[in-house]
Amino acid sequence: MAGILNIQLEPVLGDKEKNLEKVNELIEKYSDKKLDLVVLPEFFSTGVHQESFINAPEDANGGIVIKTLSETARKYKTNIVCGTVIEKEDDKLYNTSFVLNREGQIVGKYRKIHLFKFFGGNEASYITPGNLSPLVVELDFAKVGVSVCFDIKYPMLYKTLIKMGAEIIVSPSAWIKLTSLSAKEKENMELCWRSLNIARAAESLVYFVTSDLSGKPSNALYSVGNSMITNPMGVVESLQGLNEGADYKDIDLNLVRELKHSVPVAFID
Fold first, then answer.
1. Rounded CA gap, 257 and 231, in Å?
2. What three-state secondary structure class fits 125?
3. Does position 97 have pLDDT exceeding 90, yes or no?
4. CB neighbours of residue 35 within 10 Å
5. Strands 221-223 and 176-178, bridge-based pairing
6. Is 29 left (phi over 0), alpha (psi -120 to 50) or beta?
7. Contact 175, 149 (CB under 8 A)
8. Domain spanning 2-267: which superfamily?
């Protein structure tokens, strides 16, 4: 069995120090558990805050955010998928997810490939699509593939990740919708989000972990929350609501490994 702590955060917009403090407080609450992996949301350190993205990006090593989380990883002896930070390199901005091992070392990073530029989204107007290869990191307990938020709409990325041996796929997310939607429209949007999570887990025969934001980044937008851990049979083992918090689950990686032998989806096009 492996222990996953999935964090759902309502960030203070633009306040990296406060948001890192909140992350550490949530991890501390579960420090008596077997922490094999902690997963954080996309944009967790700033919220959806364009001013921070453009005017206060991190360097190619993740800057103060990753430095602080490296200390956290060492303190709690856990691997961490560090949500995302806006990283600047060669005058370009990337939406980047760093992976840390239990010693706080950077063992992988993935730059988001599929940027949200639809339905009024403007991520692609200031962020450059990732040019790194899809990422699967061999941690000390499992092979973990990384995707980010809107990537969930592109199943061929996940096909690549399972061909690379992923047993768990994580998706730090900031799934955001308009507050002007009717109650029924909001319900349908959240149902669509949960359905995408279930599909990606079941079709890939992996544990699929999405860590989402909560709260309202503006009067016009709200975060759908609903962070999830879904098993390779498509069963939702953890579903958070709309509020900030965390959920801990023990997962059975033998289930993934047995299914990979009996249902070889990684080798079927």
1. 12
2. helix
3. yes
4. 21
5. antiparallel
6. alpha
7. yes
8. Carbon-nitrogen hydrolase (3.60.110.10)
What tokens were used for 189? Answer: 């949007």
Q: Summarize pLDDT for 203-260 with one digit per residue, the tens.
A: 999 999 999 999 988 878 889 999 999 999 999 999 999 999 999 999 999 999 999 8
Q: Rounded to whole angstroms, what are the CA distances from 58 to 7, 53, 66, 123?
A: 22, 9, 9, 17
Q: What is the DSSP letter of 223?
A: E
Residue position matching structure tokens 């990686």? 253
The pLDDT tens digits of the residues spanning 43-80 come to: 999 999 888 888 899 999 999 999 999 999 999 999 99
pLDDT, tens digit (0-9, with 9 covering 90-100), for 160-186? 999 999 999 999 999 988 888 899 988
Task: Read off φ and ψ for residue 202, nearest 5 degrees.
Answer: -70, -40
Number of neighbours of residue 49 by Cβ within 10 angstroms: 20
Whether the Cβ atoms of residue 81 and residue 40 lie closer than 8 Å to each other: yes
With tokens 């005017």, the residue in question is 55
End-to-end alpha carbon distance in the chain: 30
